[in-house]
Amino acid sequence: ADAAVVENLRRAGAIIVAKSNTHEFAYGAQTPPTRNPWDLARMPGGSSGGSAAAVATGMAHGALGTDTAASVREPSALCGLVGHKPTYGRVSLRGVIPLAWSLDTVGPMCRSVDDATLLFSVIEGHDPADPTSVSIAGEQPADVESFDGLRVGVATELMRPNAPGVDDVLSAALDAFADAGASIVEVSVGDPEELTALVFVILAVEASAYHREWMRTRIDDYAPDVRAYLEMGAALTGVDYVDAQRARRAAVERLAAIFDTVDVLFAPSQHTPAPPLTADEVTFAGGLTSPRDLTLIRPLAPFNLTGNCAISVP
C-alpha cells in the first residue's frame, strides 16, 4: 500500500517518478552512494540525500524526505534547495517506516518556496489512521504582506561557529530583513550541544526499539555505521530516555516563550558548505574542528526536539 503522503499526491494528480535513495533506514548523514550534484567530490547530506540530488538536478520538480533530526533540511541546504520540516503531527506518518516515533516528520524538498508550498498543501492534513496526526481545523497562518514590523529573533547560540562564507550570507539576510522594516533581536534557545544530545538519546532509543527483532536475527545485515548507532541506542537505559524526555519538555516551553516575543526565529541551516565525501570532521577558522555529522545537525535538530516547523532556504 502507498503511504498516506503518496496517496494524497496521487489523488491531487502528481506523477510519482521513483523512490529516491536514502541513508539506510534514514539513519545517517551521508546517503551513499549519492553525491552532491554541484560537486561530485562532496556529500549531498542525509538522510534524504537522494531526494535532494533528484530535485537539484531537475529529475523531479519536488520530492519528499523524512526529517527526524534534520534529514530534510540538511540535504536541502547542502544541495541548494528549499526544505521544509512541518510541525510534528501536521503530516501523516502512516506508511512511513519509523526512525523515531516521537521525532519523525515528512516534508517537501523543492527548488522554490512556491513549489514547496504547493507540495505541502497536498500532503498536510489530519489522518485518523495515524495516532501522531493532529487536527488544526480553522487554524490558518496569516498572510504576510510586508516585513514592516516583523519581529525576527536571532538564535544566538546557533549562529556560530560558521565558515566565513556562511557568515556573509547570514549577515546579508539579516540586513535585508532590517531594510524591509523588520526588527532584529537576539534570543537564547539554549545550549545546542545539550539540545542535540537530547535528540540523539531519544532517537537512538526509539530506533533501537523499532529494530529490536532485526538486531536479534539480522544484525550483520546492517551497514557498520547504522549497526553502531543501533547498538549504542540499545545500551542506553530507561532512565536516560525519561531524563531526555523531561528535559525536552523544558526546551518546548523555552521556545514557546520565545515565540511570545518574536514572529520568526533566524539561524543558519548549516554552519559549513557541503563537506567532502571523505571528511569525518569539519574545520573552521583558527583550526577549530568538529565531528561532521554532529556539526551538520547542530543548527537543525533542536526543532525536531521541540516539534516546531522549520524551513531551510538557499
Question: Would you summarize the structure shown here?
Answer:
The chain is an alpha/beta fold and 314 residues long. The chain is built from eleven helices and nine strands.
Structure commentary:
With 314 residues, the protein is of the alpha/beta class. It has 11 helices and 9 strands. Strands 1-3-2-9 form a 4-stranded antiparallel beta sheet, with helices on both faces. Helix 6 crosses helix 8 and helix 6 (192-210) crosses helix 9. The longest helix is centred in the C-terminal third of the chain and has 21 residues, at 238-258. The protein is globular, with a radius of gyration of 19 Å.
Strand order of the largest sheet: 1-3-2-9
Q: Residue-averaged pLDDT, rounded?
A: 95
Helix count from the secondary structure assignment: 11
Give the low-pLDDT segments.
none
Main sheet attributes: strand count, strand direction, barrel closure:
4 strands, antiparallel
Structural class: alpha/beta
Task: Please state roughly what percent of the residues sit in beta strands, choosing from under 5%, 5-15%, 15-25%, 25-35%, 35-45% or over 45%.
Answer: 5-15%
Percentage of residues assigned to helices: 25-40%
Integer-rounded radius of gyration: 19 Å
Give the overall shape. globular
SSE inventory with pairings:
Elements: H1 4-11, H2 49-56, E1 62-66, H3 73-78, E2 82-85, E3 106-110, H4 113-123, E4 151-155, H5 164-179, E5 183-187, H6 192-210, H7 212-217, H8 224-235, H9 238-258, E6 264-266, E7 281-283, E8 289-291, H10 292-297, H11 302-306, E9 310-312
Parallel strand pairs: 4-5, 4-6
Antiparallel strand pairs: 1-3, 2-3, 2-9, 7-8
Helix pairs in contact: 6-8, 6-9
